[in-house]
Design goal:
The protein has 569 residues and is mainly α. Helix content is 74%, strand content 1%. Strand 1 and strand 2 form a beta hairpin.
């Protein structure tokens, strides 16, 4: 049978024995049930999951031809044997027949090893010979458990308990061995002892919560296992005949599961067992509420409850719950689809598929939307949950992608504006054309900022075009200023050249005048001298002397030469 229940006709021990006839872990995860008693109803298939979804979820555990499901070990395929697997991580995949398997692979649980190291460090185990020996026995027990030596493993754990009976790890291992310890070679099952040791484990785990909050999770798990030990006893013949004992065991199991939920509300299997116990207690409404709590944490509890005979008495209410979950999720998903479709429509306006570095992200979002629609079209609870997951992602990713697109466009525009400002004239404008051009450029900058503030794709496109125009305008003004500066420099050079030429002419004129003055002075002196000589020969009286004549002639010649030189040049 797929899931054991008290009135199944075999005891809990017989069930585990039948499911343990395998040689190793590899075989154990592939084992199939000896019979497939429970069919998936067409109503559930229509509401919860269709054949394709059930095949994808349960693989070989689901027979689509006969609509039957074998729950349990087959669900451990595809990575369920990761080191450290436990009830809280397995969720609906947990089944009693894999309890020992979990225990065997859990001895190498890194999380538990870390907690063990913390506790030992605080208790200074290495400084206490007694605690050291207890830890040694514990590690020996773990080693033997990994080798499937159940009886020898239990012996080591019990020796460890004698030396340190308040150790959570020791009590936890002993309790789970008593609860699940049966295979082809050994049978150490003792459900009453299992309960006692698991209660101790829970108590000691709670005492260590200050060391690490993770101990709270293990305290809750120990309580759940303790409740299962009571539940398992309900299948014993002597209990079935004793209504008072049956009620006591069931009430204790319910109390323990409820306490586990209080400590760890995320422990889905505790919610599920609470629902089972309430169903057996003929409290259908409360049972359905607890079942809903489990399903919210793990949707596979819908199918698990469908094949669990414990819920046969409340089956109509279970199907009503499925219908409610289906309808509520359907309404939620169609609203989210509208929201996601609107976001994608808004995103399409930003043309990411054309010239964006985020075009692949956009196409991926479109593909996800198509996938979500396909899930919605399946019109099942599983389909709506899968669609919801994708739609939730889209509602987060689409706005983010939109902002990234805006930032991409803004960066391009800002790069153009930055280049424009670098290209624009930096010096004081030299002419009205440049001054007017700079005013126009400033107007373009303001237009760009105004368009960006409008925050639409068209406004960003227009802003980018204006930014391009501003860049070209800045380059033109820069060229104009460069040309203006060149012309100004050429003019200054020409003025300097002319001034230098004038200066050279002035200097040459003075020199020329001096030369003419000397020449005319000499000439005038010669003329004056000759004139004096002629007058002396002719014996003119009253004339100038030779010296005076030469001097006067020189002076007159110099004056005439200087005047002529200045007038000439």
């Amino acid at each position: 049978m797929s899931i054991w229940y008290p009135t199944s006709g075999i005891t809990y021990s017989q069930y585990l024995q039948a499911r343990s006839l395998v040689s190793d872990v590899s075989d154990q995860v592939k084992v199939s049930g000896t019979s497939l008693e429970k069919r998936i109803s067409h109503e559930t298939e229509n509401l919860i999951a269709n054949n394709e979804q059930l095949r994808a979820t349960f693989k070989n555990g689901f027979d689509s031809l006969n609509h039957t499901l074998d729950w349990g070990l087959g669900r451990l395929e595809d990575g369920m044997l990761a080191v450290g697997a436990s009830i809280d991580s397995l969720g609906a995949n947990f089944e009693y027949s894999i309890g020992l398997l979990i225990e065997r692979i859990d001895v190498n649980n890194k999380q538990l090893s870390s907690l063990l190291t913390k506790v030992d460090a605080i208790q200074k185990v290495i400084e206490s010979p007694t605690l050291t020996r207890a830890r040694e026995y514990y590690l020996i027990g773990c080693e033997r458990l990994a080798k499937r030596l159940l009886d020898k493993s239990l012996e080591a754990f019990l020796e460890a308990e004698k030396l340190n009976d308040t150790d959570f790890f020791i009590q936890f291992r002993i309790g789970k061995l008593y609860l699940y310890g049966i295979d082809a070679d050994d049978n150490v099952l003792d459900l009453e002892k299992a309960r006692l040791h698991l209660l101790k484990a829970s108590r000691y785990a709670e005492a260590e919560i200050d060391v690490d909050p993770m101990f709270g999770k293990y305290a809750a798990e120990a309580l759940l296992h303790a409740s299962i030990s009571n539940y398992a006893r309900l299948g014993n013949p002597e209990v079935g005949q004793d209504k008072a004992l049956r009620s006591t065991l069931l009430q204790d199991a319910l109390d323990l599961a409820s306490k586990a939920i209080k400590i760890n509300p995320d422990l889905a299997e505790a919610w599920y067992h609470q629902a089972k116990y309430l169903a057996l207690f003929d409290k259908p409404q409360n049972s359905i509420l607890s079942l809903e709590g489990a399903i919210v944490l793990d949707r596979n509890y819908t199918v698990k409850s469908e094949v669990d005979h414990v819920f046969d008495k409340v089956r109509p209410l279970v199907h009503d719950l499925f219908k409610k979950l289906y309808e509520n999720k359907k309404v939620d998903c169609h609203l989210k689809r509208q929201q996601a479709a609107k976001l994608i429509s808004e995103l399409e306006e930003w043309k990411l598929e054309k010239d964006s570095q985020y075009s692949d992200d956009f196409r991926g979002l479109i593909a996800e939307m198509t996938e979500a629609v396909n899930y919605l079209n399946a019109d099942t609870y599983y389909g709506y949950l899968d669609a919801e997951s994708i739609l939730n992602k889209i509602t987060i990713e689409a706005p983010r992608l939109k902002e990234q697109r805006k930032e991409e466009l803004r960066s391009r525009i800002e790069a153009l504006l930055g280049s424009s400002k670098e290209e624009s004239p930096q010096d004081e404008p030299a002419c009205d054309d440049i001054r007017n051009g700079l005013e126009e450029l400033d107007g373009l900058y303001k237009s760009v900022q105004k368009l960006i503030a409008t925050d639409t794709f068209i406004s960003y496109v227009n802003a980018e075009e204006i930014a391009h125009t501003a860049l070209q305008k800045a380059k033109a003004l820069n060229r104009l200023q460069i040309e203006e500066q060149k012309n100004r420099r050429d003019q200054e050079i020409e003025e300097e050249r002319l001034e230098a030429l004038k200066q050279r002419r002035r200097e040459w004129s003075v020199q020329y005048a001096k030369s003419l003055a000397v020449s005319f002075a000499v000439f005038g002196g010669i003329i004056g001298t000759i004139n004096c000589i002629v007058q002396g020969i002719q014996r003119h009286e009253g004339g100038l002397g030779m010296f005076s004549g030469a001097l006067l002639g020189a002076i007159i010649g110099a004056i005439i030469g200087a005047i002529y030189g200045q007038l000439k040049h």
